[in-house]
C-alpha cells in the first residue's frame, strides 16, 4: 500500500457537489472520512462540512473535497466519484486498498 498517493476526485463528483452547493450562500466542502465499524471493519463517512486544519483539500470547479489526516492513509490512490443508478444516486469511493467490501458500498476491510 503506497501511502503517498492522494485520492483523486472525478469531474462528475465535483460537478455534483457544485449542483448541491448551487443554492447555498455558504457552500460546504464534501468531507470523506474513514471510521472504524461497519460490517467489514471500516466504513466511509461522507458529509458536507467545513475544511479543518490538517485536512487535505482537493479542489475542482470551485468546489472542495476534504480528507482528514487520520483517514488519508486509508484513501491513498482512491477515486471519489458520483454514481447515478436505478437504486439511487450517491458519492462512491473506489479504493484499491480495500481487500473486500460490503454490498452497502460504505463498509470495507483492509
How many individual domains?
1
Strand content: 35-45%
Order of helices and strands: EHEEEEEEEE
The second-level CATH architecture is: Sandwich
What is the number of helical segments per DSSP (H or I, 4+ residues)? Answer: 1
In short:
With 110 residues, this protein is mainly beta.
Secondary structure blueprint with pairings:
Blueprint: E1 8-9, H1 11-21, E2 29-36, E3 42-49, E4 56-60, E5 63-67, E6 79-85, E7 88-94, E8 100-101, E9 107-109
Description of the molecule:
Helix content is 10%, strand content 43%. By secondary structure, the protein is mainly beta. The strands form two sheets. A six-stranded mixed sheet has the order 4-5-2-3-9-8, with helices on one face. The longest helix is centred in the first third of the chain and has 11 residues, at 11-21. It is globular. Strand 6 and strand 7 (88-94) form a beta hairpin. It has one helix at 11-21, and strands spanning 8-9, 29-36, 42-49, 56-60, 63-67, 79-85, 88-94, 100-101, 107-109. The chain has a single domain (8-101), classed as Hypothetical Protein Aq_1857, Chain: A. It is built from one helix and nine strands; from the N terminus they run βαββββββββ. The model has no long low-confidence stretch (mean pLDDT 85).
Amino acid at each position: 500500500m503506497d501511502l503517498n498517493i492522494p485520492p483523486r476526485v472525478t469531474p462528475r463528483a465535483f460537478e455534483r457537489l457544485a449542483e448541491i452547493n448551487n443554492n447555498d450562500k455558504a457552500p460546504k466542502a464534501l468531507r470523506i472520512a474513514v471510521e472504524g465499524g461497519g460490517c467489514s471493519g471500516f466504513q466511509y463517512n461522507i458529509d458536507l462540512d467545513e475544511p479543518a486544519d490538517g485536512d487535505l483539500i482537493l479542489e475542482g470547479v470551485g468546489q472542495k473535497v476534504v480528507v482528514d489526516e487520520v483517514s488519508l492513509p486509508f484513501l491513498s490512490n482512491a477515486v471519489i466519484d458520483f454514481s447515478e443508478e436505478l437504486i439511487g444516486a450517491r458519492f462512491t469511493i473506489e479504493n484499491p486498498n480495500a481487500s473486500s467490501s460490503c454490498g452497502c458500498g460504505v463498509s470495507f476491510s483492509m
